[in-house]
UniProtKB/TrEMBL annotation:
It comes from Gossypium hirsutum (Upland cotton). This is Tubby-like F-box protein 5. It comes from the Eukaryota. The lineage of its organism: Eukaryota, Viridiplantae, Streptophyta, Embryophyta, Tracheophyta. Residues 132-404 form the Tubby C-terminal domain. Residues 71-114 form the F-box domain. It holds the Pfam family Tub. Belongs to the TUB family.
Length: 409
């Protein structure tokens, strides 16, 4: 009969002590951050790194119980009640960092927090790093903005309306760095802004262009669920395990292509996105998009150069830019960005689904804007995305607009 008494005491104290003070005490006990992570995330609130080792480690278990013994031994029902209250009251950053702080206390707290927190598709919130690879909300778009630093060729994705409206409360989501090569340009994407190594746990993918900047491949650091894996390099098939690079493998999840403008006619860029990891049925009635639940380690076969090319369940989802209309008075091409874009630019675009008649996709679903990107300042761009795209996919598509395309304009 100890538990009912404990739960009654907790409920009584929760009325006397504000929940925010209780959560702050929990957050102070969490020692998960390193100095480097704290410096990188001071503008974005709390940060929790993806799992780099199995949770069943014996050493990790003993350490967690030693450091957080009085918290790890709470009854599961009482712990669930605490996490649910914290999660229900924090709906945006930086306050949502309290939810991450609860997951950082110990293993039991982390497991229950992961069960309580819903995916962005269900709740519209971004909480853990894996949320960046999960589809966005079905109801309303998730509003973000990109800050460009030309001097360092760095692009930072923040969650929020704009720097002017959010101030220092912006949540840093992803950072990309442009690497110029002899025959192409790479945009390496990381969870932090000071670590772009492919062997790091912060590495999540990259965008690679061709020589002309008209075609791009989106690479992910882990294969999508239910995907077909093929090798793109024959010499790698005979490579021995001792020759395997410690770097993470890369899997092609999407292809972006821009139409050539040979006649130099007036008009915006025309683009097409083949989302190999998302079936076209995802936007239909009752359709679902792949939703990873954790960062996974790829097997040795995948490390030998295997890359995913297409989904095995259905034809891939195809996205095309929404056709603008010509405004006679303004003498320019116009799109309705609903106030989210204020500066005219050739980089601005909106993407909608391009479904075939045989796929039986409703007309409203085909007209719904899945991703929109546009300029609002000298180096500030808005990016709003929704289901079935993830933040990583939307960010990679938006990065393709920054690359130079002399044959498309």
């Amino acid at each position: 009969m100890l538990y009912p008494l404990s739960l009654a005491v907790f409920r009584q104290k929760s009325r006397e002590m504000p929940l925010k003070s209780f959560v702050r005490e929990i957050g102070n006990m969490s020692k998960k951050f390193t100095k480097k992570e704290k410096h990188e995330c001071r503008r974005g609130g709390a940060y929790i790194a993806p799992d780099s080792s199995p949770l069943s480690s014996t050493a990790g278990s003993s350490t967690a119980l030693t450091e957080h013994g009085r918290w790890a031994n709470l009854p599961p029902e009482l712990l669930l009640d605490i996490i649910q209250r914290v999660e229900a009251r924090e709906t945006c950053w930086p306050g949502r960092g309290d939810v991450v702080a609860c997951a950082s206390v110990c293993r039991s707290w982390r497991q229950i927090t992961k069960e309580v927190v819903k995916t962005p598709e269900q709740c519209g919130f971004l909480t853990f790093p894996i949320s960046l690879k999960q589809p966005g909300s079905r109801d309303t778009p998730i509003e973000c903005f990109i800050q460009r630093e030309k001097a360092t060729s760095t692009y930072r994705l923040y969650m929020g309306l704009s720097p002017a409206l959010s101030g220092n409360l912006n949540k840093l989501l992803l950072v990309a760095k442009k690497v110029r090569r002899a025959t192409c340009n790479d945009f390496v994407i990381s969870l932090v802004g000071n670590d772009f190594s492919r062997s790091s746990n912060n590495y999540v993918g990259k965008l690679k262009s061709n020589f002309m900047g008209t075609k791009f491949n989106i690479f992910d650091s882990q294969p999508p669920k239910d995907s077909l894996v093929r090798s793109t390099n024959r010499s790698l098939q005979k490579t021995h395990l001792r020759q395997v690079s410690p770097r993470k493998p890369m899997f092609i999840t999407a292809k972006i292509s821009y139409e050539l403008n040979v006649l130099r006619t007036r008009g915006p860029r025309r683009m097409k996105c083949d989302m190999y990891s998302i079936p076209a049925s995802a936007i239909g009635q009752g359709g679902t998009a792949p939703t990873p639940t954790a960062f996974t380690n790829c097997n040795d076969e995948a490390r030998l150069g295997f890359k995913t090319l297409k989904s095995t369940q259905n034809v891939p989802l195809v996205l095309r830019n929404k056709a603008p209309r010509w405004h006679e008075q303004l003498q320019c091409w116009c799109l309705n960005f609903k106030g989210r874009v204020t500066v005219a630019s050739v980089k601005n675009f909106q993407l909608v689904a391009a479904a075939e008649p045989s796929q039986n996709v409703a007309v409203p679903e085909q007209e719904k804007v899945i991703l929109q990107f546009g300029k609002i300042g000298k180096d500030i761009f808005t990016m709003d995305y929704r289901y079935p795209l993830s933040a990583l996919q939307a960010f990679a598509i938006s990065l393709s607009s920054f690359d130079t395309k002399p044959v498309c304009e």
